Amino acid sequence: MAEAPVPAEAGSALSAQDAEKIASEARWRSLRLFNGFRLLVVLGLALGLQLRVGTQTLESAQLTLLIVMLMAYATVSCLYFFTIVWRRPRFSFQLTAQVSIDIVFIVLLMHTMGGIRSGLGMLLLPYLAAAGLISRGRMTLFHAALATLALLGESIWKAWTTEGSIYADYFSPALLCLASFAVAWLAHRLARFAEENRALAEKRGLDLANLAKLNERILQDVSDGVLVVDALDIVHQYNEQIVRLGSIPPQRGELLEHWSPALAARLAQWRDGEWSQAALLQLQRKTLRPRFLALGADREGNVLIYLEDMDKLRREAQQLKLAALGRLTANLAHEIRNPLGAIAHAAQLLQEEGEDNPMIGRLTRIIDDNARRLDHMVSDVLELNRRDRVRRVDLVLEEWLPAFIESFTQQEGITVSLPVSGGVPHHVRFDAGQLQQVLWNLTRNGWRYCSKQPGSLRFVLGESDGYPVLDVVNDGPPVPPDALHQLFEPFFTTDAKGTGLGLYIAREICAANGASLEYLSPADGGACFRILFGVVDAEKDEE
User: Fold this and answer.
1) pLDDT digits over 352-399, tens only?
2) Same structural domain for residues 349 and 416?
3) How many Cα neighbours within 13 Å face the side chain of 190?
4) Distance from the CA of 161 to the CA of which of 71, 78, 277, 393 falls in 20 to 30 A?
């Protein structure tokens, strides 16, 4: 159900493209902020000019030129917003062109206000620093060189056009030029440092994203169900196995107690240090063994919960046991059957010769009874290797079951009625011969322990969780609680003459036909064996 993993290279390439797009958006956004800074400079210069007009007398031509320059610069700055929004021309060209116009404007403003001594040349420094940071260190020294040429040109022009040589002061412009290069170099280093940190952050982000995908892939592929809860027992994450273990998965942000009160109680016991690893719980007809792992320094924080499907583990263990048992018993059963037949035949001959001797008759009957028992056991063992020979057909239980009951009562000599309840038609897919074998075993066991009165052994048809159900119910004593977990184990029996293979073979046949065999304890007493048709097929489809 989980999606196929994305290769790390493909995920990295996609993330690199996204990172470059984000970086480009950041540069254009910085350029818009830089343009807003220009308008603030124009506003500050206009306020400063108004204050100066109030305290000092400016020539009319000088005032007019300053106003025209500020209005032109403000107009150009407003036009920049359109080129930035349209992103035409490209970013590097726009930044260089805008910084060049900024340098020309500041140098002309400085020249108009009296040259380097006006102090307006210091405005070049924040412009150069901002341009260096926005361009990530590119063209920074070029911008400083442009500012240096403009400052030196203004100083030379001022000295050339001013009468006398007393004004030829190049020390202040030289200091401002050095300051421009220093600021540009500092902005260049800061931009390179920021760029390196950004690249490192992107790389770490890609690594973390790939690691998160890897962790999610591992989490989904874990064969156990996995839940992650916080200190308040709120579910934050789970894998797809949880969906297979329970019909309704938990919701992220849901309290664990709302989803499974039993699991929440086990978690509380584990947090209090009162937990036993052998404790099991039931969840949606599944037998689970929970394991808890603290994700922090103590058990009060986030917890990783593993839910092992014990039914699946038992099935796998049984398959391994069955494979080993089949190899051992297949040859052994054949080797036993031949001398067993000779023993039985010899006992019959001995019985015929010793008809007048009661002792010989009693001994030969013992030999014959035990030979029959051994032969029955060998037959049951051989059935273990025939469970996969399944020819499933469509059966209607309401039509098939009465014929089976009639055959069973005749062969077993039963004279009381075996009623059938439940009238909804149920279509199932099962091997007819194997279904008869399973029901014959269950019905014979039920008849052995029931009160043998009319209705003491009955069949009930119904549904459970949408699956057809056939119950074989008797009014005999229930299975002892200490024997429940071994009831379907091979060679386990409470009957001294039993082989302990009947229920085990019946359940294996049901599993081979996509059904399950369960034991239930009815509320009104007695014992009930339930065949749940189709449930194993559904579980295999989910897996």
Assistant:
1) 776 667 777 777 777 777 777 777 767 766 665 555 567 888 888 888
2) no
3) 15
4) 71
